[in-house]
Amino acid sequence: MTDITYVRPSLVEARPAPRSTTGVLAWLQKNLFATPTDAVLTLFGALFLLWAVPPLVNFVFINAVGINGTVEECRVETAGACWAYVWSEMEFFIYGFYDMSELWRPNIVFALGAALLIPLLIPKVPFKRTNALLLLIVFPVISYYLLAGGVFGLKPMPTEKWGGLLVTLIISAVGIIVSFPLGIILALGRQSKMPVIKMLCIGFIELVRAVPLITILFMASIMLPLFMPQGTTVDKLLRALVGVTLFSAAYVAEIVRGGLQAIPRGQYEAAASLGLSYWKQMYFIILPQALKHVIPGIVNNAIALFKDTSLVYIVGMKDLLEAVKTKNDTALEWQSGNTATTGYLFAAAVFWMFCFSMSRYSMFMERRLNTGYKR
Amino acid sequence: MKKKLVTLTATAILGLTAVSAQAAILDDVKAKGYVQCGVTGGVPGFSAPDSNNVWTGIEVDFCRAMAAAVFNDAEAVRYTSLTSQERFTALSAGEVDVLSRTTTWTMSRDTQLGISFVGTMFYDGQGFMVRKADGIESALDLSGAAICIESGTTTELNAADYFAANGMEFNTVVFVDQDEVVKAYEDGRCDVYTTDSSALAAERSKFANPDDHIILPEIISKEPLGPVVRAGDTQWFNLARWTYFALLEAEELGVTSANVDEMLGSDNPAIKRLLGVEGDFGTPLGVTKDWAYQIIKTVGNYAESYERNVGPSTPIGLERGLNALWKDGGIQYAPPIR
């Protein structure tokens, strides 16, 4: 008996996908040359990269003078970026006028801050509550005494001596962290049914938002001293901190209000019908939902604030950018054609690093919290 | 109503100023233990961070000299970096005790702002820089030359006045930003670059080949730069003024930080009076008898400070010029200490 089967016992061997859909060429066609417009744009893009990238790479890496170089090498006509200058002035860029012998103090603050912040950012690490308390309450106190000195035999370091990245980080960290709860309270106040609170919150928000940050800082540095009794001077750094924080709080308030308005009325009513008090309604029901919506806005504000800290040069503080600028102007022993450019490149790179990390982390948080809303 | 409000505010501000006039700055300074000194954000040679990130410069030296006179310790100074907009407010509000910040002494500032100029630490003035290869030797040869200039500054007005007064053709290339002006001159877009002569020297030192450029001898404007204190406190004003005179007097008498200890034994009565060996000129100022000795010992005399910060051996390379002592052809002159 012969085996006659009408059903194929084995699968047809899979054939490779058509040539036109695989391989480099197909990818190129699909992604870069799908339409004539795409093709033209691709060509322009490629030409732009060819025009821009090689000189940049040459300048930043290949022709650059390394960190151990000398100013003579930087002055050679064909030399690129003068990294030796950045390296030799690094202390000023990071700490400003802080005494060289006391640099271990800001270093400890940096290390402690990183050690407390990183575990807080990684969701898997336990003890979040303790960690947050340490970072938000204990750490600022320790940092202040460590940086300012004058206690436990530490040499006093007035804030006039603080500068560079240290000041940039202090102002942006305090601004971002303090303005967040302040902004939430202002946003809730703006929706309050109590007229006085409502008017005060609206008044504050609209006033601050109607004025540029530069004006607020200017007021703080030039007008404020005239109104104060003689002899009472408020620390310049503190003035900048208060100005930046209040400014940012007004913006956070409006962002949070956007989130509050996105919550359906039913949620408020449901919360109320559970018999929760106002603060419990907000804390357990409304804010968790509202804040989730506005993460991009809040991070956007944080990034903008981080960059805006450069404006404190108005009150004569030397943040990272101003420290770089000062050295560009005054470090005569490092003068060469590319010294200033290199300094600014360094500042840009540092700012980029911080802002980019913030934006990436916010995207990660959004993905983690967004489970119910994915579209 | 509005007018009334303005009047009230003005009275309030005046009231505050009047209060400030009565407080004795020297007592405050002694109580807090340091002199608060207002400086620039960074002008090489005048006040700028050195390679150890410590403030240095001829203006910084003045503050250090005051600290030496008050505390016998030139390091008892705290520096506040001030912008040009906020400097006078900071001084009159008491945020700084002395302002030593490339401030030009003018009549309106001296008489209208409630501040007093102590003296002229540095006689500056507007000058011209040209390329050596062009063979120009005097500003009077500049008729028709392309001049790089910053727009909207007194620099521009001064130059226009000078050219008009000498019947020369005024031909400018105008920029908004100082850095652009320098860049344009360096790139050869104009033949002449003009600004204050100290700034000219500082900019020249940044060029690839500073020796290819010369600064012409003519100075066409007066820019006396000096320290400033709040008006109304005669004691503090006198201390500031005589600190400045002591720096000059020490140079005139040949007393330097190196030889000041030997000079204590000098027979010259002027030196004896300066160093407090004979007579007591410190107590009326509110400081110790050897105040000038302390200044010279730690900061040096005027010449030392000048040479160290802006003199020919520094990258800035400014000759003494007007800033030489009166007996050396300059106009720095101190009244006698007696």
Describe the structure.
The complex is a heterodimer of chains A (375) and B (338). Among the domains of chain A are: 99-156; 176-330, Orthogonal Bundle (MetI-like fold). Helix content of chain A is 69%, strand content 0%. Chain A contains 16 helices and no strands. In chain A, helix 6 (104-121) packs antiparallel against helix 7. Chain B is of the alpha/beta class and 338 residues long. Chain B folds into two domains: 23-123 and 225-328, D-Maltodextrin-Binding Protein, domain 2; 126-221, D-Maltodextrin-Binding Protein, domain 2, CATH 3.40.190. Helix content of chain B is 39%, strand content 15%. Chain B has a five-stranded mixed beta sheet. A three-stranded parallel beta sheet of chain B has the order 4-1-5. In chain B, strand 9, helix 6 and strand 10 (171-175) form a beta-alpha-beta unit. Chain B is globular and about 60 Å long. Mean pLDDT of chain B is 87; it is low at 1-21. The chains are: A mainly alpha (375), B alpha/beta (338). At the A-B interface, helix 5, helix 10 and helix 15 of A face helix 1, strand 2, strand 4, helix 4 and helix 8 of B.
